[in-house]
Amino acid sequence: MKLRDLASVVRSKNAGPFTQTIDVFFDDDASYRRVKESGSINPGRIMELYKVDESRLVGIHYLDAVRGIKIAFIKPGVASGDPGMSDMYGCQQNAPLLDLQI
């Protein structure tokens, strides 16, 4: 099963000019626990999907009270607002996670 089939929200945004954040939320405890306990969202896999070195990972945080996951990493390449930046707000960067196999 893919993450897109379990999560109700998978969104991304900038957290300043150099940091990318991704939020994943679930409607029910069973889906949240399934993803959390699968170990599918881990530093190695996230860095592979986003093609950045693991040293750029800020963190992967599981927030049980809201059935959410927060992922943050230092973006590769140019900063937000630089010429050539194709996603100024970072809101298109959730796509690689959608097809993650759980």
Blueprint (SSEs and pairs):
Elements: H1 3-6, E1 9-14, E2 19-25, H2 29-38, H3 43-50, E3 57-63, E4 68-74, H4 95-98
Antiparallel strand pairs: 1-2, 2-4, 3-4
Describe the protein's architecture and organization.
The protein has 102 residues and is α+β, with helices and mostly antiparallel strands. The protein has a single domain, classed as Alpha-Beta Plaits (2-Layer Sandwich). Helices cover 25% and strands 26% of the residues. The chain contains 4 helices and 4 strands; from the N terminus they run αββααββα. Strands 1-2-4-3 form a 4-stranded antiparallel sheet. It is globular and about 45 Å long.
Provide a compact summary of the structure.
The protein is an alpha+beta fold and 102 residues long. The chain has helices at 3-6, 29-38, 43-50, 95-98, and strands spanning 9-14, 19-25, 57-63, 68-74.
